Every structure is written in structure tokens, then in C-alpha cells.
Amino acid sequence: MTTTLETDVLIVGGGPAGMMCGITAAQFWPSRRVLLVRPEEQAVVPCGIPYIFGTLGGTDEDLAGRAPFLAAGGRILIGRIASVNRDARHATLEDGTRIAWNRLVLATGSTPFVPPIDGHALDGVFQIHKQYDYLDELLSERLPGVATLAILGGGFIGVEFSDELRKRGIEVHLIEQRPRLLGASFDADASEAVAARLRALGVKVHTGATVAAIEAQADGVRVAGVRLDNGGRLSVEAVLIAIGTRPDTRLAGDMGLTLSRSGGIWVDGFQQCREDPQIFAVGDCAHKQDFFTRHANHALLASQAAAEGRIAGMNLYGLKLPRTNAGTIAVYASQIDELAFGVAGLTEHSARDIGFEVFTGDARLPDHHPATMPGTHEVHCRLVFDANSERLIGGQVIGGPTTAEILNTLAVAIQLRATATDLASFQFGSHPRLTAPVHPIVAATGEALRRRLGTA
Amino acid sequence: MTTTLETDVLIVGGGPAGMMCGITAAQFWPSRRVLLVRPEEQAVVPCGIPYIFGTLGGTDEDLAGRAPFLAAGGRILIGRIASVNRDARHATLEDGTRIAWNRLVLATGSTPFVPPIDGHALDGVFQIHKQYDYLDELLSERLPGVATLAILGGGFIGVEFSDELRKRGIEVHLIEQRPRLLGASFDADASEAVAARLRALGVKVHTGATVAAIEAQADGVRVAGVRLDNGGRLSVEAVLIAIGTRPDTRLAGDMGLTLSRSGGIWVDGFQQCREDPQIFAVGDCAHKQDFFTRHANHALLASQAAAEGRIAGMNLYGLKLPRTNAGTIAVYASQIDELAFGVAGLTEHSARDIGFEVFTGDARLPDHHPATMPGTHEVHCRLVFDANSERLIGGQVIGGPTTAEILNTLAVAIQLRATATDLASFQFGSHPRLTAPVHPIVAATGEALRRRLGTA
Question: Exposure check for chain A: N or C terminus, fewer CB within 10 A?
């Protein structure tokens, strides 16, 4: 006989999108039962994964808490959904357990992309899976003894891993196809600042280099090195593939849900699927529209996933909040050593590529004042404005510990469609130990206006 | 014979408002001559003054740079303006030098308020003047040897001084008339957190206590202690008065300019004086209208002063930027030990006092994630929304080093009139080493909406 569980809301997947949707649903719809099903007993914080290997020092130090969800009244079931019957409104676990639902949220996440190159399945080739068991084995059994390692992919994850792994004493080769690191996210000077810092820390940075194959040792089993398409070769004992992830839409595909042309599950502004307003998709598995262009945006970010989970969670049984997903702005930040860096919205080059006519402004300031204050870092802020509307469309910040919150200020300004006029004389607070003397956004906006007026 | 200098723009005063106006004027109007006259050879960073006595360790460590102004093409003259002839468009220095101008900017600042209590002129009673010489003498000659000191006034400046002076080994009594510290700026729980931290650091905090008199030693010259109006008495060797400052409008008064009923120079939205559109006033000497009420706002902040300097500087010869002063939001932040705290806009109690019907939300989160990340502090964010428009009207943050930039994000949201709906699912960036897992603004907005909906 089949066991049948009943819930109101069934959430499939326990990453940031699923968990945030669950917390929000339980909080905003307290009379509804919310059940989250995920395969992992222990879930890790995805953006904390690189830090397991250095700063945090352990997989158990990177656990995503379930307490807020449970405290809100949600329940968690460990298992894998094998199939969903949309008409009958139930899902079936691999063990045969049936779950009846009236709202289904797909938060199935993404899986690492592995390029189809020779040797990708050799022993010693690692991927960045988000599973606790995989990561814990990597940390405690696979990596110890590895003295040299190549990372394929010089995006944020590759850059973060290279810094964390070099802290373990591993000689790290960071290999990026494009001419520079973080090329998709940053203008050239910021990429160069990050590359310079990594080199100073002992990381071997190889840009404009493509790995043609991963080579095996004589045993045909273990990694011996990587061959580059320019004929070069690097001897390494291990390879970490950090090229990106792809939406995991297997379940959605089996259910016959529409996928976007770029691969994610098609969703409307409330994260509802095309076929059925009682089925939602959030996070990496869901299609992302770009805030500026409406084209697909391929940045799969935990913060964006959580925002989508929140929108779906609030609107499961009616629009408690008439808030739709306005599209992905892509607000990133990271830190290598003491150097923090990030971007909100468009960079100068990406804006021009899209076709925006832009004007830009730069400011370089200390992040405390006067600059004699202990712990002072330089902040470099570059803002990008659309020349026709004068609206802020992006910003890049390189600085100290406050970098990410300065970017969040930019993110708010972009979302509220602030103009250069708005920002040029905005009121900001300042304090010697906590901020620059002039807010970098105000200073950079001033320079942008002066360049535009021809007085810079 | 009288020496006559000629300039286009004459700025009187070299604090944040004057200096920022000068930089902006020189940058936006490069064909105009900009001359700044100030009495001090060396100018200090005003908000850095408390830190001279502890963290910075020297007056020379708190100098306000003149380099950006000079680099922009401005000139500085050390001297005091004795009078201004508005009709003839010239000013006269105390040494008789005459300066012809066609735009005049008054940035004469403020002076410490000294309450008319017995003993206020005794030897050992100090004020917080912004002059280099006064501060340097205080640091190097007056304070050494002082073992016990009372600070009158438990606002931001009093709180900051008490932390810095206790670092020197001085036993500090902090005396505040109101029932709690920072009462004008903070809700009660935040005041209590600051008081508790100060007490833990050894500062003696006396709230609800008024100083009736400062008592003299037998010599009738030096301070012996302070007498409280509840009959108590504290033996101290010195007293620091930190009750606040008053606009310095002597020159404006002599010129016959209109003053506001609350004491500052009357200015319009472009910082122009009532009588003459070629005369501007900026910073502490200028009247401040509150962003929310249009009543006078008595917060005299360097950041606000600088914003006014920027508005005037851009618009001296026509509206290069059609930006007016929207009124004071009052964005403050400070830090005691590792505890940072601040406010942007209205607190819950000040909003209710004004007559707003409000709803509020609180969030407590780590400022890194997971919370096992080294250097993690708790952030407590409280947001205040107007119940009718749903607009954000204020926020209070207690946390770590990113506190002030979170407040600046709130300041932008307030100025752009963001609603709870806007903020509840806003996109923010997150990073384990740099931010909370969920942005405190999003979390607190969510809680506010749930309280409002009755599901919290």
C-alpha cells in the first residue's frame, strides 16, 4: 500500500531559493502546511563552498541552517522526487511515498557544467557540486596530498577557489579562456587588479588559455596534467572544473513544463509556470530575464535565487504583495585576501555592447577618513549612466569590507531608477571609522556629470 | 592704500560645507576663480575630532586635506572676514584687505553651545571647538594629567568622546539630561545597547541627570567637580561640554540677511539667501528644513553640510544641476569599540511623535554567512514605514563595520521614496565574507509586512 502525505505547499529542493520560498510561505501563509523535500540530510551554503577549503576550514562550518524554516512552521523531508502528476496534484518520491499538494514550487537548482574534453572523467578531476558528502570527501580525502592543481574557469568561483586552495599550500594554476579574469562581470582595470592580487599571493594566472585535454598518468586513471591549445602543458595532480552551472530542469521537463530557449523553466513575473498557475519555479532552475534587456541572464546567484523564492512565497495563494520579478540586475561581490570587488548591473563595456550610449564617472577615496584612520582601504567606484535617461545602469566597486554594501546601495538606486541628478547631491551619512569622507557614489556621479558637461 | 583682491566666487569658511562647495565650484565652473577664506592655517576633519584623543592619537592625524580643492584650481587665503558690503560686492578682511566677488558663499559653521551654568568658565572646562590650535593644546597640554573627567551631553559626540578618552585611561563620567543616551536619534533598545557597551568599557553613564553647577577648587580657579540637580556630586578634574553647537550667523546678521526663526541663515532649495541670489549659505550656518516635516531640523552633520556645499557649488552661475536641497534626512552612524550603530531618517518614536501612523519590522542577522565566518557581527535592522503610503521613512541599524553603508542604502531608499513592496523582494548581492545571507533591509521589510498583515 502506498503511503500518502498531504501538504498545501510542496517545495522541491532545499537551496537558497527553496528554503527562502519555504520560510516566506510559512510566514506569510501561516494557515498553510509547507513541506520542503530535498535529497541532502545536510545542506551547505552555496556561496560559502570555496571557503570550506580555507577560511572556514571544514564542511560542517558551512551548513545552511534549517532553524528559521522550522521555526516558521515548515517541515523538511529528506528524499528525492521521482515524478509529479500535475493533473492529480501529487508527487512521488523514489521510495514510493506519495505527496499530495495544491501548490508546487520547483527549486531544483543547477548542476556543474563539465566541458566535453578528453580526460574529464579521470581520477583527480573535481567539480563544484553543492552536496555535503561530495564536498566533505573532497576536503578530507581527495585534496589532502594534492600539491598542484589547475582550476578551469576564471570567474568568481574559480577566483575564490584559487585563493582558498593556495591558503592550503597548494600550487594553483587558474586557467581562463578569455583574455582576462572575471571578464563577463568586470571592466578591464578591475580584472587586472584581481589578477595582480592573486599573482602576488602565488597563484599562477593563465588568461587567454584554453584547456584542450586533461592528461592521464601512465596508469590511465589519474590526472597527470593539462594540455593547453597553444601547445603548452602544465603538470598538475588535480583539476577543478569551475566553468559554471546549468539549470537542473529534468523534473520540469518530465512534467511537460515549458522551458525557455536558454534552458531554465519558463516563469512569469510571479515565478508561475506557463501551464499552471499553481506551479512555481524559483532559483537556478528558473529562467532569468535581464533587468535591462529582457534577454536571458545567465548569472545564477544565490541572492537572486532567494529574491525569487521570496516573490513566489508571498504570492502562492494570491498576490499578498503585488511584486513581480523585475529581472536580474546581477549584484556580485567577492573578496581575495583583503581586496573586495564587485559589480551591480552593467559594466561600461557590457552597457556599450548592448547598445547603450553611456557616460561614466570614477572616484577613488579612502573608506575611512581621514586616511590615517586604522584599517583604511582605498575604494574605487565607477558608475555607468544611460546618456539619454541619465539613469544609473551599473556600477563597479573595488575596496575594503564595505564594498558589498556600497554595491547594494547601487542596486537599490538602479532598481528605483535613480538618475545622475538624484545621486549627485544625495544625502549620505559619513563617519571617520566607517565610511569615506564623501560617499563614493556621490563623488563618482559628480565626475560623471562633469565629464558629460565637458568640465572634467 | 587698500589691497584689493579679485575673485569670482568667495567662500567664507573652510569646513566640510565650504571646502566641498569650493571643490564643486572649481570643478563645475572651471573658468571662474574660486577663493576660500578661512581663519585656520590647518583645518581638522570635524567628525574625526573625538578620534584625535584615542584612535588617531594626534591632531596632525586628523587634518582635512586641501589638495583636492587646490588641484581643482581653487585658492585658499588664511584670514578673517570682518565685513561684507553687499551692494559694492566686496568683503573686507580684518587686516583691511578687500576682496571683490560676484558670488558669495557663507560657510561660517557653528560654535559650541555653552550652557549658562555656574562654573562654566573655570579652568578645566573644555568645549569642542573645531580649531586645530585649541584641540592640539587640549591634547598635548590640558588633558595630560587629568585622571577624571565629566562629559556633559550624551549625544553622538559625547558618546564618542567618552570611548576615546577612556582609552587614555581617564575615568569618564558621561552625563545626559534625558532618560537615555542618544535619545534624540535612537529608539530605546539601541540607546541601551550603546550604554551597556560603554559601561562594559568602564565609562560611568549617568542618564536622567542634569548638571546644576560646575564646582571650583579652593583656589576658585580650577574644576573640583560637578553638582547634579538631584543632589549628587561627582569629583572630577575636568569637564567637557558636548551639548551641541549653534549656527554661527554673526557675519550674516551684520550683512542684514534673513535668519530663520530657528537660527540658521534662511536659504532656498538651491542654498540661495532670501535677499540676494548671488549670496549662498551652506552647512551648519544655514537653516535646515526637515525632509519629512519642513520644520527646522537641528542635526548639524558634516555629511549634510557637504551635500549643501555640492548643491550650491553646482548652481552658482545657473542651474547646472536642477537639484535642490530636499531637506535633512539626518543619516548618522558611529562606533564604540566594535559596536557600530546609526540611523537614517525617522525612528519609530520620532515618527509617531510627528503624527505618522507607522508599521515597523525588525531583523537580526549575522553580517557574514554562515555565522561561523571569522569576523562575524550581528546586525539588527529596524525599519519604519508610513502606514498610508507604505513608504520607508526611517531605519536604525546596530552592527559591525558595514553598518554605515547599510544606513546609506536606507538613505537612498528614503530619498527615492521606496515602498515596502519595493523593498520586500529587492535584489541585493550577498557574499559569505562581506554580507548577511539575506539583506537586513529585505528581512526587516518582510517582517514589517507580515506584522501589518497579521501573520507575524
Answer: N
The distance in angstroms from the start CA to the end CA of chain A is 78
| Single residue among B217, B243, B269 that ends a domain in this structure | B243
Residue linked to cell 519555479: A281
All residues of chain A having their beta carbon less than 8 Å from the beta carbon of residue B342 are 429, 431
Domain check: are B230 and B338 in the same one? no
A319 has a chain B CB within 8 A of its CB: no
The answer to whether residue A119 sits within a structural domain is no
Of A24, A401, A429, the CB nearest to B331: A429
* Distance to chain B for A161, nearest Cα, Å: 13
Distance from CA of A418 to the nearest CA of B (A): 7
Q: Return all residues near B134 (Cβ < 8 A) that are at least 6 apart.
A: none
Encode chain B (456 residues) as per-residue pLDDT tens digits: 678 999 999 999 999 999 999 999 999 999 999 999 999 999 999 999 999 999 999 999 999 989 999 999 999 999 999 999 999 999 999 999 999 999 999 999 999 999 999 999 999 999 999 999 999 999 999 999 999 999 999 999 999 999 999 999 999 999 999 999 998 888 898 999 999 999 999 999 999 999 999 999 999 999 999 999 989 999 999 999 999 999 999 999 999 999 998 899 999 989 999 999 999 999 999 999 999 998 888 888 999 999 999 999 999 998 766 667 888 999 999 999 999 999 999 999 999 999 999 999 999 999 999 888 999 999 999 999 999 999 999 999 999 999 999 999 999 999 999 999 999 988 999 999 999 989 999 999 999 999 998 877
Verify that A272 and A381 share a domain, yes or no: no
In this complex, is the C-beta atom of B388 within 8 Å of any C-beta atom belonging to chain A? no
B373 touches chain A (CB under 8 A): yes
Residues of A with CB below 8 A from B63's CB? 370
DSSP 3-state of A93: strand
CATH number at residue B440: 3.30.390.30
ipTM confidence? 0.91
Q: Are B14 and B36 in contact (CB under 8 A)?
A: yes
Please report, for chain A, how many H helices and E strands are present, in that order.
Answer: 12, 24
